[in-house]
Records
---
Amino acid sequence: MQLSTKHLLGIKDLTPSDISLILSTATQFKEVLQRSVKKVPSLRDVTIVNLFYENSTRTRISFELAEKRLGADAINFSASASSVSKGETLLDTVNNILSMKVDMVVMRHSASGAPHFLAKHIPAAIINAGDGINEHPTQALLDALSIQERLGSLEGKKVVLVGDIMHSRVALSNIYLLNKMGAQVMVAGPPTLIPKYIAEALHVKVEYNIKKALEWCDVANVLRIQLERQNQVLFSSLREYNLAYGVTRKLLDGLKKEIVIMHPGPINRGVEITSDVADSKQSVILNQVENGVAIRMAVIYLLASKI
Ligand code: CP
């Protein structure tokens, strides 16, 4: 089987079959990653550049690891340490890199649509590693794999995305994916951090009361407050936010069931989530990170077959 697209720009462009194919391929790669020899050198002739115009820990390391596990040649590019600081444009930078015969570009950029722009102008396969407040498709895929592993499937499961929905590319990619795969989706947080028409536009439930949201769900995916993407004051203080919307042990103990706790990272401990929740056995936060390598291997492997 093959993916229906030659790039991974967003979950919006994928079919449910594409998503199932990526998840099942990642599950096979997870088995490989448990072995003592963790390499499947199937992409020996493929050269991939990781083009990061914005900071990253998890995404960047896991893409590089995935490329190495597949035997591809991986090159890392950091905008802050490049000729971008001398005024070089994005297209000039990429065309210079491509002239060195690169097959695939993994790109993170603070501007929404930057990977889509590249896909229109260069012949390489593009993987979006997070663009502004638009999408973070591989994060949604690894989140889906983590839910599937814990609950058996996505179909019919109730997932709430908690917090700064307005500025979160993780939220948008998760909403697209969960809707396509038959899960029920809710967003919860302060009204100032939830887009006004999201219920109609993206077919999600909206809840402003965190206790009610947690009572409804099977899974809570807790998002970071993206202060770096906010240009106005949207809540009074981080302490006030924590008191009203922080996911705490007391809140979870008040529920009649045990829900799964997720967080894409980086965590602001004591703001959107307390340490005792983040580090509890209900939390799959480190499983999400582990799944990131297998998901990225699957995406790279499947797109490489279309080069
Ligand atoms: N979840 C995530 O994208 O983390 P990084 O910003 O560290 O890559």
---
Amino acid sequence: MNRRILLLAATALSLGAGSLAMGQSLPPLEKKDRYKVGFSQMESNNPWRIAETKSFHDTAEACNWDLIATDAAGSAAKQVADVDSMIAQGIDVLFLPPREEKPLIPAVKKARAAGIPTFLVDRSVDPAAAKPGVDFVAFLGSDFIDQGRRVADWTIANFKGDKGVIVQLEGTTGSSPANDRKKGFDDAIAADSRFEIVASQSGDFARDLGRQVMETLLQAHPDVNVVYAHNDEMAIGAIQALELAGRKPGEDVLVVSIDGTRDALQAIIDGKMGVTVESSPFFGPLACEVMNRYANGEEIEHWVQVQDRIFTQDNAAKHIDEAY
Ligand code: GYE
């Protein structure tokens, strides 16, 4: 082969690798008896996060992980620093739920530069800044747009009145589930002219902030009769605010949400909440399976999608024992 043919072959190879430029393939994961695994949790202020961290701990022994788990206490900057420290400790693989889409990009890039395969779990990063198959191996998680759409579809089908006045409690600003749960819901609800979203504000995915934001919004919009919360913790906070204001969630206000926590299933059983679309926190076993496939040299799909159920009056009692 002369040089020109060699060059052509190299170009064809790099084209065949899609967006991967030559020499940029993902860091491999060597097969080992035990792996030093990093799990960088973003915060632990709600049952969802606690259940997810527990799921990683519960998986560790069976998956031969020496697990290093950190807690960024709600700070993206601390989460970046936590990843730095794990890189310094020589982890083999990183599982990262990025609190927000943009601020965690440096953590993803640093792990990539250090040759550590990274899997994003439960939240993703800005796809314009970091890509699966290039900067990280894959995103393991739900379709948040679809979750929002399913809440809207259920609301359209089950709201009884002539005019739906909606307050939306958004998740953490700049996080992938907040962006996508809003988009999915807003687009689907727009198809039914009975509904109007009169306010949409962040409650940071937290119960207490959800309650406070709802208290304020109730004063500005006393005619609200639908509350869409991006997660169950804020929905429970909203129910507290509504009750404090003398409203009757489940009777004069329809509360709809996402996650499937124990408190939300109980609120559905009690008739205070209409629906919650599942978003499971039990990522440990899936993380183990995908990591092992990767160590075996398999090509991993860029999005390992989790399938979500839906909980209503019909099945909440049946599932409450498995909830968290
Ligand atoms: O819905 C919420 C949590 O990223 C999918 O984050 C996750 C979301 C979950 O704080 O409760």
